[in-house]
């Protein structure tokens, strides 16, 4: 009897909740009333604002720098404070920098998060759709580090490309040596090391005597000179020597580019650290001194020694 009464109460509560949900307004709440949406393109950007902000709420701006500044001026005149734009390739970067410089709150949106309507949309409809989603707070902002960190990241990415290119050159040099049956990789661990580079440069310079090439090995190499000389006996094919020479020159070029990136990174990091606030530097130094003092005290003084110099 009690179970039937409990089930009847639960059923009645569910019906009351469903009736209340149907009667209440299920509309979305406006989160960003001063919003705009931008459909980013290669040659032009389509910008949409709310219809009450301008008689022509959707406008087309070309990707030239003067047009981007004109776009920012128009958004400022419309009272826009926050903007949603798609991260399309690298076309969004100049627009993002200009809008961020003008003081707008820019939401960089993943394009996959906005493709939830069936059918194809025009550029105008795409910008209006971005505006609508952003107005109701339905778009997530992608993480963007500060401008100084982005500059540092650009240097690091360029350096990474040079490192990858140098590694590819080493692989091609190894392939050319293997095709000539030069089994140098079986006696040394790295072709880009001191011994490998000395031997490869001597081969490119015209040295073919295995014993003389083996004498170029570093003393820390575990293999003996006889083993190294045996691995350097092969067929010296001229076309593969030509490939070896070109890849070695490309490897040297990449190494110079890496050194240039390192110099630029050091210069930028030096300027980046010099611009840090003085109190922040003093706080960091004070924390380091505290940690160092704590480590010294815990390592020198025993745990069973109190402040009155009496053993507990």
Task: Give your account of this protein's structure.
This protein has 312 residues and is α/β, with parallel strands linked by helices. Among the domains are: 35-135, YqgF/RNase H-like domain (Nucleotidyltransferase, domain 5, 2-Layer Sandwich); 153-268. Helix content is 56%, strand content 8%. The chain contains ten helices and five strands. The chain has helices at residues 2-23, 65-77, 92-101, 123-135, 147-179, 194-205, 210-214, 225-231, 238-274, 278-300, and strands spanning 35-39, 44-49, 58-62, 82-86, 105-109. A five-stranded mixed sheet has the order 3-2-1-4-5. A hairpin with a 4-residue loop joins β1 (35-39) and β2. α2 packs across α3 (92-101), α5 (147-179) packs antiparallel against α9 and α6 crosses α9. The chain is elongated.
Q: Kindly provide the radius of gyration, computed on alpha-carbon positions and rounded to a whole number of angstroms.
A: 34 Å
Number of helices: 10
How widely separated are the two ends?
A: 71 Å
On the 0 to 100 scale, the average pLDDT is 82
Task: Give the low-confidence spans.
Answer: 292-312
Globally, the shape reads elongated
SS class:
alpha/beta
- What portion of residues belong to β-strands? 5-15%
Give helix and strand order, one letter per element, not per position: HEEEHEHEHHHHHHH
Question: Strand tally, please?
Answer: 5
> Percent helix among the residues?
55-70%
Task: Characterize the biggest β-sheet.
Answer: 5 strands, mixed
- With strands numbered from the N-terminus, the spatial order across the biggest sheet is 3-2-1-4-5
């Amino acid at each position: 009897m009690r179970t039937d009464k409990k089930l009847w109460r639960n059923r009645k509560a569910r019906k009351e909740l469903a009736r209340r949900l149907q009667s209440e307004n299920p509309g979305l709440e406006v989160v960003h009333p001063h919003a705009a949406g931008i459909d980013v393109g290669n040659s032009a950007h389509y910008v949409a604002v709310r219809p009450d902000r301008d008689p022509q709420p959707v406008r087309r701006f070309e990707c030239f720098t003067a047009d981007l500044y004109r776009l920012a001026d128009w958004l400022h005149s419309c009272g826009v404070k926050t903007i949603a734009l798609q991260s399309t390739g690298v076309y969004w970067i100049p627009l993002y920098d200009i809008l961020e410089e003008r003081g707008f709150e820019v939401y960089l949106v993943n394009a996959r998060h906005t493709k939830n309507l069936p059918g194809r949309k025009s550029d105008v409809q795409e910008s209006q759709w971005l505006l609508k989603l952003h107005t109701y707070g339905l778009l997530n902002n992608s993480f963007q580090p500060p401008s100084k960190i982005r500059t540092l990241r650009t240097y690091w990415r360029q350096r990474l490309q040079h490192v990858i290119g140098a590694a590819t050159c080493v692989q091609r040099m190894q392939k050319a040596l293997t095709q000539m049956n030069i089994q140098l990789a079986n006696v040394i661990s790295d072709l880009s090391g001191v011994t490998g580079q000395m031997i490869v440069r001597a081969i490119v310079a015209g040295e073919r005597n295995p014993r003389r090439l083996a004498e170029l090995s570093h003393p820390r190499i575990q293999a003996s000179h006889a083993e190294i000389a045996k691995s350097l006996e092969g067929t010296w094919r001229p076309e593969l020597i030509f490939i070896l020479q070109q890849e070695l020159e490309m490897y040297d070029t990449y190494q110079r580019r890496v050194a240039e990136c390192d110099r630029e990174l050091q210069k930028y990091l030096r300027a980046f650290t010099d611009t840090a606030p003085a109190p922040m530097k003093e706080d960091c130094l004070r924390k380091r001194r505290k940690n160092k003092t704590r480590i010294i005290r815990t390592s020198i003084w025993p745990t069973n020694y109190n402040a009155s110099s009496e053993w507990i």
